[in-house]
Amino acid sequence: MNSSLLSLLVLAGIAIFLILRLRSVLGTREGFEKPVARPDTLRSGPRQQFEVIEGGPDEDIIDHVEDGSDSAKALAAMKLAEPGFRVSEFLQGARQAYEMILMSFERGDVDGLRPFLADDVMETFEAVINQRNEQGLSIEAEFVGVRETVLQVATFDRDTNTAEITVRFVAELTSVVRNSDGEIIEGDTSEIKRQRDVWTFARSMGSDDPNWALVATDG
């Protein structure tokens, strides 16, 4: 074997060795591969969804009142006084309280009303119920449902931590008035009527008592 052929074999062996080493380090690639993006252009979808912008609007508030309004500021102050407070949860509870209070009033259930009403509102409700009883009148009502629950105004007294929220309700129900003989003197059991009420609820934020009291009504 001459020296030239020997040199070629040695070079070929070195080349094969280098190729094998490169394959073991870099691995093998088959087919088309997308170019690797630069680190500064990488974006992760899930991370964007949970990105929090410091100082951004609170959707739990601006879903119900105008951003930057006095009511929005009052609701934000309520959350500072009681971090667990949520406007949407309050409105859901107010909706349930509205049905319960309204139907207790229609039925003349004084004891059922007392835990949820401020003293002056309770006196007014009780006076109407007593007047009906004295006249021998009774109301037969069936609640159909709440069609609208809208937060109208919110205020917060920072000195006393007292919050007040006014809500407009639109409900549907059937209602008839019966005399002492059980005869219908007003209304129709088959007629669904729409009732509108504006009620104000109040509570001391941060207190141990989680219940809101009805402090004012405006039908």
Can you describe what's shown?
With 219 residues, the protein is an alpha+beta fold. The protein has one domain: Nuclear Transport Factor 2, Chain: A. 39% of the residues lie in helices and 27% in strands. The protein contains 7 helices and 5 strands, in the order H-H-H-H-H-H-H-E-E-E-E-E. Strands 1, 2, 3, 4 and 5 form a 5-stranded antiparallel beta sheet that branches. The radius of gyration is 36 Å and the shape is elongated.
Keywords:
219 residues, alpha+beta, Nuclear Transport Factor 2, Chain: A, 5-stranded antiparallel sheet, 5 strands, 39% helix
Spell out the blueprint of helices and strands.
Blueprint: H1 3-26, H2 45-49, H3 59-62, H4 70-81, H5 87-107, H6 110-113, H7 119-134, E1 138-157, E2 162-178, E3 184-187, E4 193-204, E5 213-218
Antiparallel strand pairs: 1-2, 2-3, 2-4, 4-5
CATH T-level topology: Nuclear Transport Factor 2, Chain: A
- Report the strand count: 5
CATH class, named Alpha Beta
Shape descriptor reads elongated
